[in-house]
What does this fold into?
Amino acid sequence: MAAVLLAGCTTKGGGPEKGDREALAQYMATYPEAHLQDIYKSCFQNVFGVAHLISDTQACINYIESEMEELGPDDRDYSLYEYTLPDSHYVRVDLHAVAEGLVPCDLLVELLMTSAATPAPLTQEEWVARWQELKAAADALDPRPDDYEKEAAEIDSLLAEGQYVWHHSRHFGEVYRPHYRLVRRDLFESRILPLL
It folds into this structure.
């Protein structure tokens, strides 16, 4: 995996708070094989975080422990954290940070549960309008991701049916093997970043 990293830096991308076009261009520079649905997922996570995934503390612990068993040595070409795009409300914390003993699992779980309880800054209706702005920025990407028109239509159909959650593309999962959890930015910067 070819990650865009700054020397001595442990975060992918160039940092938080970019304009939509700049943020999407940076995302595609970091993940050149990403699809539009991966862009959608990242932008959705930036607004809604993890609230749709976490039901209780023990389930969260079990899921993290299970996924950490899947971590492999070939997954190490990654950064320990990455800000969501484009507004950096959340930060993706790679599970290698836990597996390598840098971040205690119980701390990550505590911050995940707190993050999951955070109200989203947009309603679902407002999200649909925001996605249209983000898609306009994605339309300007050159080159556009593979299967762009097909996935754009699928996302529009999903939203028209009142469904909002989307997963990474299969290709993204195979190429980049993501293993992360989302933590609210302020919690990450005050509680996890000092450990990395």
Summary: The longest helix spans residues 124-139.
